[in-house]
Design a protein that fits this description.
The protein is of the alpha+beta class and about 170 residues long. The chain is built from five helices and nine strands; from the N terminus they run βαββαββαβαβαββ.
């Protein structure tokens, strides 16, 4: 069964293994905790993920952000993030939703279904009428996932497509 679950201490070991292995920049998905030690993940990273979803202890310029892990049965296959609202930097940049599917699970529909599930959660969090997303131009698979979920290319720059998905 495929489902999303918020970052939590109960699943820390599997969350740690997933986060540690994702590169610092995985096709535009930023992971500040790549290669982090288990101790640092437990004491700092996971606590930051959980507090960010509550809007607590946010660095200057950050907005509340919910960290979700995509599970296939008892294995984490991806991570999704929902930024609760946009500031100017996000409006012209990363947008509301970011995600990453672990390499060995790509091309199997996890991105499509994970984004669909994320959009269902996001509609109750995000106040805007549409969801803003950004994808690297050299990542056509992710662009396909966004378009499959009702997205359209709103604009582009030299390196990115900026995609919008209407709230349903």
């Amino acid at each position: 069964m495929l489902y999303l679950k918020e970052a939590n201490f109960e699943d820390m070991e599997k969350e740690y293994r997933f986060v540690r292995e994702i590169p610092a920049d995985e096709n535009g998905f930023g992971n500040s905790w790549h290669g982090v030690s288990r101790e640092e993940f437990a004491q700092k990273a996971l606590a930051q993920m959980i507090s960010a979803s509550k809007g607590e202890n946010l660095p200057e310029g950050y907005v509340p952000e919910t960290f979700l892990f995509l599970w296939q049965d008892d294995e984490i296959v991806g991570q999704f993030r929902i930024r609760h609202y946009l500031n100017e930097s996000l409006r012209n940049g990363a947008g509301h939703i970011g995600y990453c599917i672990k390499k060995e699970y790509r091309g199997k529909g996890y991105g499509k279904e994970g984004l669909r599930l994320t959009l269902q959660i996001a509609k109750d969090i995000i106040p805007e009428d549409e969801f803003f997303l950004r994808v690297n131009k050299d990542n056509p698979a992710s662009l396909h996932v966004m378009l499959w979920n009702g997205g359209h290319i709103h604009s582009e720059d030299a390196d990115h497509y900026f995609v919008r998905i209407k709230k349903e």
